[in-house]
Amino acid sequence: MENTKNIINFIYQNNTISQNKFGIIESLKNPIAAQEKAFFNLIKNIKDTAIYKELKLDKIKNHYELIKKVPLHDYNFYEKFINKIIAGEENQMFIGKPKYFFSSSGTTNNSKTIPCSNEIFSVFNQSLTEYLLYLYQNLNDISLESDSISIGAKHTIEEINGVQKGYLSGILATSSSRINKYPSPEYFQIDNYSERISKIYFEAKDKDIKLITGVPAHIFAFFNEILNLSGKQKIQEI
Questions:
Q1: Residues 92, 6: one domain?
Q2: Do you know which Pfam families this protein is assigned to (predicted)?
Q3: Residue at 123 is within a domain
Q4: Alpha-carbon gap, residue 82 to 93, rounded angstroms
Q5: CB of 196 within 8 A of CB of 188?
């Protein structure tokens, strides 16, 4: 545990996340300032892109003006930009090429393709990192060395012009660098859900799992499956 505390202190001293006054956790205390900072970061990261020009964002001076002058749009508005990104064009919704293509779950009719930039993906990792650091600091029985399970969907469905396309939950679960993490990446690619959960269960059943991360619906389904596999009545019994 002392080693864990030393690692956490090192991360906070050397990580730009902890040094950022408006990190994910800190922004809850300063929401207005955090929104303003997010606005200027957005403008900086998409300046001179196709969507920047179409929305005339060069005329928008602050977060308040953005709310007043730029309406909310659904996927249909963004689809023309996304199709160009899929075709290989750059500088449509952000500078350069996407880091990943995310696939939506398709709960509203068909599954949709969503390009993700390096900057956006770093936000996902930032929120995950801060969440885990918060847990490590506030729960005595969880450390950086604790065994953990990440639950997610397929991390790779296909490649589009050399860019990986998959479900966000699977990509985040397999891109994390935490040690003592289960399951093995190849298990995310198993189509049959029951078979996938069975593989995860038997790989990790003898480990002292302290942390399970993932979409809540995935975690509940995972609990139900492993209760059936184990023959137990409660998760605490496993």
A1: yes
A2: GH3 (PF03321)
A3: no
A4: 8
A5: yes
Q: Do both 70 and 152 map to the same domain?
A: no
Q: Residue 168: what pLDDT?
A: 87
Verify that 154 and 69 share a domain, yes or no: no
Q: Which contacts qualify for 119-126: CB closer than 8 Å, 24 or more apart?
A: 119/41, 119/45, 119/94, 120/94, 124/168, 124/172, 125/172, 125/175, 125/176, 126/17, 126/23, 126/24
List C-alpha distances in Å: 227 to 9, 201, 204, 221: 38, 10, 14, 10
Regarding whether 19 and 91 lie in a shared domain, the answer is yes
End-to-end CA distance of the chain: 24
Domain of residue 207, residue span? 146-237
- 102 falls within a domain: no
* d(C-alpha 201, C-alpha 71), whole Å: 46
What string of H, E and C letters represents the secondary structure of 69-124?
HCCCCCHHHHHHHHHHHHCCCCCCCCCCCCCEEEECCCCCCCCCEEEECHHHHHHH
Q: Tokens 């930009």 label which residue?
A: 81
pLDDT tier at 128, thresholds 50, 70, 90: confident
Residue with tokens 């730029």: 70
The sign one gets for the Cα dihedral 59, 62, 66, 67 is negative
User: What is the distance, to the nearest Å, from the Cα of residue 34 to the centroid of all Cα atoms in its chain?
Assistant: 20
Residue 162 lies in a domain: yes
Task: Please report whether residue 170 resides in a domain.
Answer: yes
| This prediction's pTM | 0.78
Tens digit of each residue's pLDDT (9 = 90 or more) over 52-67: 999 999 999 999 999 9
